[in-house]
Write a structure and sequence with these properties.
0% strand, mainly alpha, 82% helix, globular, 217 residues
């Protein structure tokens, strides 16, 4: 089981390195220094606020699901709720800050679309669940298919001479499709999202655990 799980993770890493390098170089050459700079600046700008979305919950959720499988629906529901709240806070921060920074319309539009990706990152809790169950193949299938589709979309934008804004939309599409596929696979494997429950007690502990783990790095 562990060998098969590791093989799927290696495949995912290989696909993203090779595919990402190929498409990334093509995008960089197509957009040129100015537009590619806008895309990278926007990615960095949004990433600054994403600390509110992750909350360091990845390893924490995996550990808690393994330790307390009977509480899985409460752990996932709570983590999902916290990440969703965090994403809204981060989005508010980004959009409010856009009124303060000196940037052109295109840059702000790219930032706007990239910020929307935060909403779909809450679904990452399903990935944490599959990691805890040592069945990463489902996560890899969802992520890889989304990556292939978004990469194909990027190639289409290059061939037909689209602007940098569409490449931001492609990144948004990547996370949107990935989230949809994770939800679909989660349901198909016999699990139900409507069984997730938010627990105030667990919520009060998860961020504390995350802070402890972060400081221990």
């Amino acid at each position: 089981m562990y060998l098969a799980n590791a093989s799927w993770l290696i495949f995912d890493r290989f696909l993203r390195i090779v595919g990402g390098l190929f498409v990334g170089i093509w995008i960089a050459r197509y957009l040129g220094p100015n537009d590619f700079g806008i895309l990278n600046y926007s990615l960095g700008y949004v990433a600054f606020f994403q600390v509110f979305v992750g909350l360091g919950l990845n390893q924490i959720v995996v550990r808690e699901v393994v330790k307390s499988p009977k509480l899985t629906n409460y752990i996932l529901g709570t983590a999902f709720g916290l990440k969703l709240i965090g994403s809204f806070l981060a989005m508010i921060g980004v959009y409010a800050s856009l009124f303060l920074i000196q940037a052109d319309y295109i840059t702000k539009l790219v930032i706007f679309f990239l910020t929307l990706r935060m909403l779909f990152q809450s679904v990452d809790v399903i990935e944490y669940f599959f990691n805890a169950k040592v069945i990463s193949k489902y996560t890899v299938l969802a992520r890889s298919l989304a990556f292939i589709c978004s990469s194909s979309l990027n190639i289409f934008f290059i061939v037909y001479d689209f602007s940098v804004v569409y490449f931001a939309l492609s990144l948004l599409f990547d996370l949107l499709l990935s989230a949809f596929l994770l939800l679909f696979i989660y349901k198909k494997t016999g699990y139900l999202i409507n069984q997730w429950r938010f627990s105030k007690k667990i919520a009060s502990n998860l961020p504390a655990f995350a802070i402890i783990c972060y400081k221990a790095r």
